Amino acid sequence: IMCHPLKATLTEENNPYIKEALENSDAALAAAKIQDYLQQHNTIPLNIAITGESGSGKSTFVNAFRGLSNKDEGAAPTGYVETTMEAAPYPHPNYPNVTLWDLPGIDSSRFPAAEYLKTFGFDKFDFFIIISSDRFRENDVKLALEIQKQKKNFYFVRTKIDSSLQDEERIQRDFSAEKSLQLIRQNCVEGLQRQGMASPQVFLISSFHLNLYDFQLLVETMERELPSHRRDALLFAIPKINQEIFNKKKKAFEAEIKYSALWSALTASVPVPGLSVAVDLGILVTVINNYKSGFGVDEESLQKLADSTNKPLSELQAVMTSPFAAANVTTEVIIKFLAVTGAQATLLAAEEGSRYIPILGIPLAAGISFASTYSILKTCLNMVTEDAQNVLIKALGLNTSDHFCFLTKQYSLHECFLLLLLKKYMYMYFFQITW
Ligand code: GDP
C-alpha cells in the first residue's frame, strides 16, 4: 500500500491524534489538531532553578542565559543585593514560557535539603543548576542528592572562570589556560567526591563569555537529558553563542516546518476559495517573525546587540540582505517577496482553481500547498539565518565568515525560486499519478 506522503511526515513523530484524523480523511479536524500542536509546542513551559550563594554569579548567569547583559531592562539585579528567601522568576524576553528562577543558596536558607526543595516548589522545576564561584559545599551535595532521589536532573556550574584564569596568570610563571582549567575542574570534582557525590560532572563557565569554556557542553547535556517535548523550548531560548548552537537552533526550527506546511496544506484542502492563500500568508508572517526573534535579528534584539557591542544599529541592519530585514515582517513584506517571481503567483492561482476539480482537486491542492509552504519556509529560514550570521560577524568585528559555516548550502534568491518551482512541479506530477 502506497503511504500518503503527508501522513508519512507524521509517522516518525508518532503523533497519534493528528495521524488518526488524517487516516480518517478528516482534513478539517487534522488541521485543527496541528494548529493546537503548533501552539502548544511553542508554549511548553520550561522552568530552570538556579541556586547558589549570594555573590556566586547566579543573577549574571540568569541574565546571560536569557541573552541579556546585567544592564539590560528586565535583567536580574546583580552586584550587592540583599538576599531574600524568595524564589525570583525571570522569564526569557522572547520566550516567556522559559523561566529561570533565582533561588537563595541552601546554606543561607538553613533548611534541610528536602524541606528547601519543598519550600521553593520542587515539582515546578524541570532541572536545577547549582552554582558556585569557588568550591561546592556539603549542603550543595546534600541538595544534589535529594534532587537525584526525587528523580530530577541537576548540573554543577563553576562560574567566573575568566577571572579565575586571570588570577592564575598573574601568579604562575608557566601559565597555561588548559592546565589551569583542568586543575579547577579537578578541585571541584574532588571536593564534591569528598562530600559524598559519586561521579560528579562540573561545568566551567564565564557568564561574560558563554562562547568559551563549557557552556556549549552544558547545553548539550541538558538537551540530551530533557524529555523531547521540552528540548525545543530550550533550543529556541538559548543564546546563539557559536556555530554548534546556531545549527542546533536551525534544526529545531526546521523540524517544525513540516507541521506549519501540513497545517496550511490541510486548510487548503477545505474547499473555501481564497482561504488557503490567506492562511498561507498568516502562517508565513507568524513563522518568519519567530525565526527573527529566535536568531536575534528582530528589532529589539538588534538594538540590544548594538548597545552591548557599541556598534550603531544602522551598521548591523546594513548587513541584513534578506527581504525580511524590515522591522516587522507583515503580509505586505511576504507578498512582495512572493511577487519577485510571477510563477509563484500563478501557482497560487492554480491551487485556487484546482480545488474545484472533483476527486483529484482536493489532494492536488493539498499537495501543492504543502510543498510550496514547506519550500518557502525553508528558504526563509535560510535567509534569516544568513542575516543573523552576517549581523553576528559584524557585531563581533570578525572579518571572515569562516567562524560560522552552516550545515546546509546557502542558495541565492534566484536558485531558491528555481528549486521551489521544480519541487512544486514534482509534487504536482506525483500527486496526479498516485491518487
Ligand atoms: P549573585 O549574588 O549570585 O546573583 O551574583 P551576581 O550575579 O550579582 O554576581 C556577583 C558579582 O560577580 C558581580 O559583580 C558580577 O559582575 C560578578 N560576576 C558574575 N558572574 C561572573 C563571571 O562569569 N565572570 C566574572 N569575571 N564576574 C562575574
Would you summarize the structure shown here?
The protein is α/β, with parallel strands linked by helices and 435 residues long. The protein has helices at 5-11, 16-23, 27-41, 58-65, 106-109, 113-119, 138-149, 161-171, 177-194, 215-225, 228-237, 243-268, 275-294, 299-309, 313-318, 331-339, 342-354, 361-396, 413-434; strands at 46-52, 88-91, 98-103, 127-132, 153-158, 202-204.
Pick out its properties.
Rossmann fold; disordered C terminus; disordered N terminus; alpha/beta; 435 residues; binds guanosine-5'-diphosphate; 2 domains; 6 strands; globular; 19 helices
Protein architecture, described:
- The protein has helices at about 5-10, 15-25, 25-40, 60-65, 105-110, 115-120, 140-150, 160-170, 175-195, 215-225, 230-235, 245-270, 275-295, 300-310, 315-320, 330-340, 340-355, 360-395, 415-435, and strands spanning about 45-50, 90, 100-105, 125-130, 155-160, 200-205.
- It is globular.
- The chain has two domains: about 5-40 and about 240-430, no CATH class; about 45-235, Rossmann fold, CATH 3.40.50.
- The chain has 19 helices and six strands.
- Helix 3 (about 25-40) packs antiparallel against helix 12 (about 245-270) and helix 18 packs antiparallel against helix 19.
- With about 425 residues, it is of the alpha/beta class.
- Mean pLDDT is about 75; it is low at about 1-10, about 270-275, about 355-360, about 400-410 and about 425-435.
- The two termini are about 10 Å apart.
- The chain binds guanosine-5'-diphosphate.
- Guanosine-5'-diphosphate (GDP) binds near residues 57 and 163.
- Belongs to the TRAFAC class dynamin-like GTPase superfamily. IRG family.
